[in-house]
Specification:
By secondary structure, the chain is of the alpha/beta class. Helix content is 32%, strand content 25%. It folds into two domains: 1-52 and 142-210, FAD/NAD(P)-binding domain (3-Layer(bba) Sandwich), CATH 3.50.50; 59-136, no CATH class. The longest helix has 20 residues, at 94-113. The mean pLDDT is 96. Bound molecules: flavin-adenine dinucleotide (FAD).
Length: 210
């Protein structure tokens, strides 16, 4: 995505938090930002929010959740982090892994409190994991997870603009992102300014620079 630098750039409309991408990452970010009191706009390229998340099984590994405790499962963020590092042969950044694993249980419970009907997936140990820690919605599909997240956003009053593909990021000469241009259905181009921009449009996996 190209970045256009222009200190004089002005936007007719500005939203405090703009999120590019309406998959799980984008919608959870939107719920968190809205919960913190910010106005949020999600820009999603596709006709409905789906992304890779809807293709997935929707199993979310998380440690030390109330769902695990209710099932008598003993687990901890450190045990999850050790499993993750073993699975990736020590290649991941351990600080990033620790941060994510430490937040994983709280994130699942926080989302459950906002109406995402998580259950602990029981009956089999997910490959490479030493405890029952996969959380999913009862249908156990990514599509159903996306439907639940979309509904939660709707209840929270979050605007998700679909068929809106971001084509350009706008920044000032200090590299501060100020807004985006997006194309509606591949035709009209519109712009929106932002106070903060969340890149939740996927595509970073296996990128060596990250
Ligand atoms: C078959 C399969 C099974 C999987 N199973 C699991 C699993 O069980 N557990 C697990 O943890 N992970 C699983 N994964 C991986 C997981 O699905 C992804 O890591 C996760 O969905 C990524 O979420 P995301 O929100 O970052 O991206 P996505 O869900 O892909 O969302 C990104 C969104 O950004 C939008 N977008 C992209 N570019 C733009 C643009 N320029 N402007 C506007 N919008 C844009 C896309 O349309 C998309 O909706 C699986 C993946 C696959 C393919």
């Amino acid at each position: 995505m190209p970045v256009a630098y222009d200190d004089a750039k002005r936007f007719d409309l500005a939203i405090p938090v703009v999120i590019i991408g309406g998959g799980a990452c984008g919608l959870v970010s939107a719920l968190a930002a809205k919960n913190a009191g910010a106005e949020v706009l999600v820009l999603e390229r596709d006709r409905i929010p789906s992304g890779s998340t809807a293709l997935s099984s929707g199993f979310i590994p998380a440690a030390y959740t109330r769902f695990q405790r209710a099932a008598g499962v003993v687990d901890s963020p450190g045990q999850l982090a050790a499993d993750v590092m073993r699975k990736n042969n020590g290649e991941a950044d351990p600080r990033m892994v620790d941060t994510i694993c430490s937040a994983s249980g709280r994130a699942i419970e926080w989302l459950a409190d906002r109406g995402i009907p998580f259950v602990l997936v029981e009956g089999f140990l997910y490959p490479g994991h030493s405890a029952l820690r996969m959380h999913a919605v009862p249908e156990k599909t990514g599509r159903a997870l996306m439907a639940a997240l979309t509904e939660a956003c709707s209840r929270a009053g979050i605007d998700i603009l679909c068929e809106a593909q971001v084509t350009t990021l706008h920044a000032d000469s200090k590299h501060r992102l100020r807004g985006v241009s997006f194309s509606r259905r591949g035709q009209t181009v519109e712009e929106v300014g932002c106070g903060a921009l969340v890149l939740a449009c996927s595509g970073l996996a296996a990128t060596p620079r990250w």
